[in-house]
Amino acid sequence: MNKTDLINNISTKSGLSKKDVEAVLNGFLGEITDALASGDKVQLIGFGTFETRKRSGRTGRNPQTGNTIEIPESTVPAFKAGNKLKEAVN
User: Matching PROSITE patterns, A to Z (predicted)?
Assistant: First the structure.
């Protein structure tokens, strides 16, 4: 399912227009992005938690040349599923 499919499904089930659903979805995703960018975490009880994690630096290899390269430490987004989501999937 892609973003367009999600908007169509929510619009059909809720009776809202696709334009309204898209505006809400974009706002929701923007707020999660802003929170993660500022170092906060977003917890949706029963669904899951969006947070950031530190990925330590490491040594890698360029597959074209075979040369070793240093990959710097970085911050990456992460999602941990909540219990209700885990139960629904299983």
Answer: HISTONE_LIKE
